[in-house]
Amino acid sequence: ALVVTMDFAEDCWVEAVVDGQRRLSELHVQGESLMLEADDKVVLTLGNARAVRIEVNGLQYEMEVGSGRIARDVTIDLETARQLAGRADDG
Q: Each residue of 44-78: b (16+ CB within 10 Å) or e?
């Protein structure tokens, strides 16, 4: 299973698709947190990606944020969690 936690340093629009369904589309403001649980996969669209700190199963997830503020189709799945856990074991 996956637990994806987001902490917001600034206001940020979030759209989430969990396991291919259960869409969530809402604005989160500075200081809020959001937790999503999934069996398989979470796909996020973030309106202000730099304002969001993401953890996957308690491990920090470094998102690829380009020059723009919007991050589309940020996919976090079981493989992502495995890779993060492996990195945590290494260091």
A: bbbbbbebbebbbbeeebeeeeeeeeebeebebee
- pLDDT by residue for the chain (91 residues), tens only, comes to 999 999 999 999 999 999 999 889 999 999 999 999 999 999 999 999 999 999 999 999 998 877 779 999 999 999 999 999 998 888 6
Beta bridge mates, 13: 27
Q: What's the N-to-C CA distance of the chain in angstroms? A: 23
Longest dimension (CA), the chain: 36
Prediction pTM value: 0.92
Question: Which of 54, 64, 56, 2 has the alpha carbon at shortest distance from 28?
Answer: 54
Residue 4 exposed, middle or buried by CB count within 10 Å (0-12, 13-18, 19+)? buried
> CB of 7 within 8 A of CB of 16?
no
